[in-house]
Amino acid sequence: MEDINQTIEWKLKTFDTLTPHELYNVLRLRSEVFVVEQNCVFLDMDNKDQFSYHCMGFINEQLVAYTRLIAPGKVYQFMSIGRVVTAPNFRKQKIGRALMLHSIASCYELFGKAPIQIGAQLYLKQFYESLGFVQSSDVYDEDGIDHIEMIKQPD
């Protein structure tokens, strides 16, 4: 059986270089998961996309994985990875792990080997710990979902 992660086409773009179709697909996937699936009413478009890098994973031209990469000092003291999302029909195939590994490597290429900070949903703590992130805050509520801040030191 073919490893699905071998078929992912990765794209990394600034906001200004996203095509209208890519931007639509990103916003649709984020809305599908963060607003509809998680039943969380919040404003996803938070004026951070414009200064972010957008890491997108495609399989057969379908967006299946996405993160937003942000330079140090823009949101957190350290560079950050946010809006981590995998398409529902592609879960349980380790695409989320491949997405995070690609995002971490992309952060290091863009911003240098330095700590990476994330605001993680609490139920994903073990997943992020398996990637080297360590909890760095108490639990806090963000839009009705328990979150924690986590930091990964460079290898």
Write the layout of secondary structure elements.
Elements: E1 9-14, H1 20-37, E2 53-59, E3 62-70, E4 79-86, H2 95-111, E5 116-121, H3 125-129, E6 133-135, E7 140-142, E8 145-152
Structural account:
The protein is 26% helix and 32% strand. It has 155 residues and is α+β, with helices and mostly antiparallel strands. Strands 1, 2, 3, 4, 5, 6, 7 and 8 form an 8-stranded mixed sheet that branches. The radius of gyration is 15 Å and the shape is globular. The mean pLDDT is 94.
The total of beta strands comes to 8
Query: Helix and strand string, N-terminal first?
Result: EHEEEHEHEEE
The description of the largest β-sheet is: 8 strands, mixed
Average pLDDT for all residues? 94
Task: State which percent range the strand residues make up.
Answer: 25-35%
- The quaternary organization reads as single chain
The N- and C-terminal alpha carbons lie at a distance of: 32 Å
Short description:
The longest helix has 18 residues, at 20-37.
Task: Summarize this structure as a short list of keywords or feature phrases.
155 residues; alpha+beta; eight-stranded mixed β-sheet; 3 helices; 26% helix; globular
